């Protein structure tokens, strides 16, 4: 995650990543790290993933934002 987002600087940097299993009730970080190790040799270093639901939501936000920008440009 730090590779993807960079390292926080200043106040609060100790909270950038919290691996305490009691704070992460869905367990995805553990799954992510296991999957990354399994596929790294086949696909290289670019092994970060995005869940289908998050991808769907991101696509929705992107399309909405694009529509707003196009409407303002055309006005």
Describe what you observe in this structure.
- This protein is mainly α.
- It is 57% helix and 0% strand.
- The protein is built from three helices and no strands.
- It has helices spanning 2-5, 28-43, 52-74.
- The longest helix is centred in the last third of the chain and has 23 residues, at 52-74.
- The chain is extended and about 50 Å long.
- The N and C termini lie far apart (40 Å).
- The mean pLDDT is 76.
Largest sheet: none
Query: Which structural category fits the helices and strands?
Result: mainly alpha
**Whole-number radius of gyration?**
17 Å
Q: Roughly what percent helix?
A: 55-70%
Distance between the termini: 40 Å
Q: Count of helices?
A: 3
Which percent range describes the beta-strand content?
Answer: under 5%
| Strand/helix succession | HHH
Overall mean pLDDT stands at: 76
Structure summary, number of beta strands = 0
Outline type: extended
Name the poorly predicted regions.
none
């Amino acid at each position: 995650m730090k590779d993807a987002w960079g390292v926080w600087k200043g106040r609060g940097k100790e909270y950038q990543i919290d691996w305490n299993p009691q704070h992460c009730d869905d367990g995805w970080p553990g799954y992510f790290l296991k999957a990354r190790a399994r596929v790294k040799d086949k696909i290289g270093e670019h092994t970060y993933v995005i869940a289908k639901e998050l991808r769907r939501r991101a696509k929705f936000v992107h399309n909405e934002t694009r529509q707003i920008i196009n409407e303002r440009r055309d006005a």
